Amino acid sequence: MSVCIGLFTATSAVITVSIVLISRSIKASDLAPRTRKMQQQLFRALLIQTAAPCLFSYIPLATILLFPLTGIDVGALGTVLIMTTALFPSLDAILVVLFIPRLRYAVCRAFRIPYEDSSTAQGYSVPYSLNQIVQRPMTGAKVSPTPH
After folding, report:
1. Which residues fall within 8 angstroms of residue 123, CB to CB, at 6 or more apart?
2. Exposure of 34 by Cβ count < 10 A (0-12 exposed, 13-18 middle, 19+ buried)?
3. Residue 145 CB contacts under 8 Å (≥ 6 apart), including other chains
């Protein structure tokens, strides 16, 4: 048990040191503003991809495995925790799409979901009602003029 705790602590220390060093190098580099912004977005997505397995896989599985050893009955909570681990792979991909605005924009365009241009909305989607979606043509789409 102490070996597992030691490995977890060492891994957490490496992750923490890496986060600090990468964050400092992005801030200190002489990159163009757009490149720096993209690197920060990718770094944020990497942090989410690091935290997601802990929240949706490691912690639930550790709870299921360790609680019975201490005499605590997980009961129905065990079922919920197992379902949480099953959601992790798809949730990981969705989180990446949500945290990288250009990727989110590309996915919205691929599925023809209305999305404001990132230069005007700074990468955040603008909610539309169903009537606005039906009445408004896609941005950049060729609309043929109606005959008179």
Report:
1. 101, 102, 104, 105
2. exposed
3. none
Structural tokens at position 84: 């949480």
Cα distance between residue 56 and residue 86, in whole Å: 8
11-30 confidence digits (pLDDT tens): 889 988 998 998 898 888 88
Name residues whose C-beta falls within 8 Å of residue 138's C-beta, 6 or more positions apart in sequence: 109, 112, 114
Asked if 143 contacts 137 with a C-beta cutoff of 8 angstroms, the reply is yes
DSSP state of 136: S
Q: How far apart are CA 44 and CA 32, in angstroms?
A: 18
Q: Of 145, 140, 108, which Cα lies nearest the Cα of 123?
A: 108
User: For residue 49, what are the CA distances in angstroms to 2, 55, 129?
Assistant: 27, 10, 32
Dist. CA 68–CA 113, nearest whole Å: 47
pLDDT tens per residue, range 93-115:
888 888 888 888 888 888 888 87
First to last CA, the chain: 80
